[in-house]
Amino acid sequence: MSTPSLLERIWRLIDWLHSFRYVRFGLVGASGTVVNLAVLYTAHEFLFNAIEPAGTKPYFSLALAIAIATVNNFTWNRLWTWSDRQHATSVQQEDGYSKRSLLAQLGQYATASWLGILLQYALTLWLAHFMHYLLANVIAIVIASVSNFIANDRWTFRHRRKP
Hints:
Largest sheet: 2 strands, antiparallel
Strand order of the largest sheet: 1-2
Shape: globular
Number of domains: 1
Helix content: 55-70%
Radius of gyration: 19 Å
Structural class: mainly alpha
Order of helices and strands: HHHEEHHH
Strand content: under 5%
């Protein structure tokens, strides 16, 4: 019996980590962080440069970055992190189950994430007094991610029991 190669071991590790929902949530969050930072930088340095000159706080840019990253994260969490819970988006009707609209679930996701969004926004602006605004934003995202996971796992994508 041969020992598995390093590449095989890495793939086994990836498969094992994939089974943990929070790891998938974290990977989606990492992609959201990249989206957030790219939009924040682009909007602050170029798009809103006239109303947010260098050295000022990125109020509008940060709001836009959070909004776009929220849509990115919702999409990937729905398609990947909680893909096994797609049935949880159904509502009982007389003729059986029917899907809620995607927009309604996005609204629920955004509502469930409001605490994390507000926490990220406030922490970023506060931490920006002490460090670069991009680093402040990354720290705030990490802190807010825990509340986002719990709220969305328990509410937006929760299992619904069949009647």
